[in-house]
Amino acid sequence: MKILKYIPGLVFMLSLLVVTSCKEDLTEINENPNGVDPNSANPNLIMPTVMTGVANQYVKLGYGKIAGVIQHTQEDAWKDGFNDYNWNEEDDEWKAWYGFLRNNNLLHKRAVETKVKFHEGVALTMRAFIFGTISDLWGDAPYTEALKGDEGTMLPKFDSQEVIYKGIIEDLKAASATFAASGDERDAPAYDVFYNGNALKWQKFANTLLLRYYMRISSKLPDIAKPGIEAVYASGIYFKDASDDAVMDYIGTDKDNSWPNATAYDVSESNWRRRRPASTLISNLVTNQDPRLKVWFLPVHVRWVADPTLAKGMDEFIREDGKILTGVKSFTEQELRAKIAAGHKYTRHFNPNTYKPSRPEQFNGPLNTGEYVGVPPGMIDPTYFNENPTTGQQVQNQHASQLSYTYQGNKGGILKARLASAAETSFILAEAAQKGWAAGDAAAHYNNGIKQSLQTWGVADAYNAFIKQKGVAYNGTQAQIIEQKWIASWTAATEGWFDYRRTGLPKLVPGVAPVSRALPVRFIYSNNELNNNGESVRSAIERLEETRFSGPRKKNSQWSKPWLVQGTGKPWE
Question: PROSITE patterns attached here (predicted)?
Fold first, then answer.
């Protein structure tokens, strides 16, 4: 994608554009010669700025702390916000998403003015995606009065989630119709970082988002959701293959355009190392012999071995190829990586009859002897997990799995920001069909969702064997559909969270340490908004439902229910 090398300059240019207010009556001395006149901005140059900004922000959530919420991953240090949901106001997140909207608003304006229908469709699709994400994350938000500061609306009202979801559905319908009429964009391959100007793929993306949001509101507005999903299904225009997925590749030339936690920009490798697979996900993958396991995660470097002949409770030192290395409790990650690659195997033995936890208040056993070992959610101090002899962050926990070395990289292969996928689409249709809606065969869609996810992660050849696993073969339940959709949302965990919030599935259980005994359901409105648009924010907070988990923040809490789940009994009472 040729445009990618120009992204840093484009981002700078658009940042100037967002903060520059060029008016005809300004004197020349006040004009910014480096600014961009919104009245003549080229929509080609605005489009990739919107797309890359949104994709980066979305993957940072889905690969970041939301993966902690839905127990894809845990962090074994600096864990409060990741494992324990001990969240503060999300001011920076809020600013980022509304910043994308400002740029996208200009894209739409210039597309209409220049009569470029393709770009207009892109702007409508991205507007729906951004507003949908905002409402998904917080609840009520500025919508109908948003982005109207130049018209004098400085304190926009907060619209209800119902209004926002209905609005984005209409935007997506309009976008789909626009793409159907526009044809491919001749100049867009140099600027469209998702689809190289392919109008049909953008139409599929718009329709896939329609399926997402129809299902999102299905418990609250079934009279809209059911016919909506049935209509999209009847059209046949939606993601059907992993090659359709809405993804952004990274170019990997600096930290901002590389995969999150790329170790090229983190010499200590600490950010990669402290992020571990959660036991919830690992257990599922191991039990069902899931071929994605080895793509995403590494075996433990030093495996526990039960040895009833051992004279003491457990080895003090590790063993190399069965022989104790006296005085060696651990090697560094880099040393172990090289030694294991050279063919050595490392273990520690314990006597299951006499072993006693060394720090029972931190880790009370039992020892996990598996080849792949995940960290349980919400531990008090996860660095002690599985009798790690080197707690803290100087040396890795050799007795717990780590993410694949692939996730140390800058770019390439599976390192993509994924906004929506064919697998998600198939699981949505499977759930709709399972409800009895006219959306085809639930089992066929379920099986397709698994096949498409395996295709995404490069293990499609394993499908025939995997689909026959006892825990995988379709059993006709919503729980199984959502479970496989939850797995398939790896690195795009926001969708797994929103599904959990809507359905209570999978039945995730908090660990022992989180600040609340329930998983959160929303982000917290920021003090910045309260200080600057207090009346509107307070009215939105008042519409939230305080719960027994809300705590000292009361209604403006991550455990207070927005409209979408009020009255549904989900994900918890």
Answer: PROKAR_LIPOPROTEIN
Q: Give the helix/strand (H/E) hosting 540.
A: helix 534-542
**Rounded Cα–Cα distance for residues 509 and 505 (Å):** 11
Residue 545 per-residue DSSP state: B
Residue 402 CA to residue 276 CA, distance in Å, equals: 5
E-assigned strands of 115-202? Answer: 141-142, 158-159
* β-bridge partners, 141: 159
Residue 332 in any domain: the answer is yes
Separation of alpha carbons 472 and 482, rounded Å: 12
Q: What's the farthest any 2 CA atoms get from each other in the chain?
A: 89
- How far is residue 68's CA from residue 82's CA, in Å, rounded to a whole number? 5
For the chain, the average pLDDT equals 92
Mapped to the 3 state alphabet, what secondary structure does 203-265 carry?
HHHHHHHHHHHHHHCCCCCHHHHHHHHHHHHHHCCCCCCHHHCEEEECCCCCHHHCCCCCHHH
Q: What is the amino acid identity at position 30?
A: N
Q: Would you say residue 362 lies in a domain?
A: yes
**525 DSSP assignment:** P
Tally Cβ neighbours within 10 Å of residue 350: 22
Residue recorded with tokens 């995606």? 129
pLDDT for res 23: 35
pLDDT digits (tens, 9 = 90+) for 40-53: 899 999 999 999 99
What are the CA-CA distances from residue 320 to residues 57, 340, 389 (Å)?
Answer: 43, 10, 16
**Residue 341 structural domain:** 277-408
**366: in domain:** yes
Lowest mean pLDDT among 24-38, 207-221, 303-317, 463-477: 24-38
Q: Is 320 helix (H, G, I), strand (E, B) or coil?
A: strand
φ/ψ (deg, to 5) at 47: -55, -50
In a domain, 267, yes or no: no
Total domain count, the chain? 1
Q: Write down the pLDDT at residue 572.
A: 94
